[in-house]
Structure prediction request, 406 residues.
Amino acid sequence: MKLALHERALACPRCGELLEIGLVRVEGEPEQVKRRWLERRLSSDPRDRSGVWRFREFLPAGYELEETITLGEGNVPLIAGNKSAAWAGVRDLWFKHLGWNPTGCFKDLGMTVGITEAKHVGAKAVGCASTGNTAASLAAYAARAGMECRVYLPAGQVSHNKLAQALDFGARVVQIPGSFDDALDTLLRNSDGELYFLNSINPFRIEGQKTAMIEMLEQFGWRVPDYLVCPGGNLGNSSAFGKAFEELRQFGFIEKAPRMVIVQASGANPLARMWRENGQVLRPVERPETVATAIRIGNPRSWKKALHALQFTNGMAIDVTDEEIGEAKEIIGRDGIGCEPASATTLAGIRKLVRAGQMEPDARIAAVLTGHALKDTDYIIKRFQKRAESGQQTERSSSAVEMHAH
Ligand code: F0G
Prediction:
């Protein structure tokens, strides 16, 4: 069933499935459009300065310049991970660091489009359920747009840094007992029609998040890497990346997509489990548990879209343990890059696949880091304190041990 682009609907009125925005045509030949994208980097139009709106040929159209809400998101580098590559046993590893966005997370890429659409349809108040990052991002963009913002968070399960951001940007915080899945259910149940809903099931957010892959491919000089590795939580981001590759191929911008690898935490792994068991229907994890609180999600809403992305790209879904996440995160820190725990699933996943002979050591691999190291400082301090207390003074931890002793 087709709806008009700006209709305010959360799901298909007929079958209840998530909505998806269809890209009907792209203005210009691929080489011409790629050149136009580069030329826009010299422009001072706020849309050209944004690493999302610069690629607006692949975004929903029809917004005036004045209603485009942007914080100059995107424009984040692709950085070689040298120590990380050696640790994982690969030779050609690149990090696309989406944590270096305005609020420290990839959510900003989708939020600039989502909030612009909310403004376009006249919304006065916006809301989301969140493990923390969506809340921080929504709060910032809502503040820019002059909208009221309400965020539903799983009580006691959100990092202080993310909670602090949401408060700083003036959001009303509602703490819900239970997990992210409970917070999302509560929000959906209590939504009164006035609140414009901005979780990643909102298809406008998915459109914005697609541009991360366009920017990355431009940085690779349009040479497509062999693998694209990303963390999986509610699975909106992996759906967005899959959609980007599909559309880029459909319109002749690339010839093939990279193989997508979605990595979940083993305590919150419904997609990885389904993939391993060759299942067709996702069974939610009842009580998701992981140190990577950003992806502590048992019932991901976008699983069908993510599964489609895996099938389209000949990809795979895997999971890694909390300890593997912790080790990988430390190594990414030693590369001078840093990230939050959820993002480190990528490097942990790469090492696991190489060891299992499922990823070639000389493949070109792009890993998406989704959140900034400062997003969860409690995690870092606690990990090093615990090590210091247990007396395991490895060379790598010595600086933290000193800090603890002072
Ligand atoms: N990495 C980080 C840092 C995240 O915050 C999230 C999701 C993901 C990965 C997974 O992305 O859900 O699209 O599969 N965080 C959401 C939030 C759920 O509320 O901030 P996904």
Q: What stands out?
A: The chain has a mean pLDDT of 95. The pocket of F0G is lined by residues 105, 130-134, 200, 231-238, 294-295, 340, 342-343, 370-371 (CB under 6 Å). Residues 340 and 374 are 7 Å apart (CA to CA). Strands lie at 78-80, 92-97, 125-129, 148-154, 172-176, 195-197, 227-231, 259-265, 316-320, 364-369.
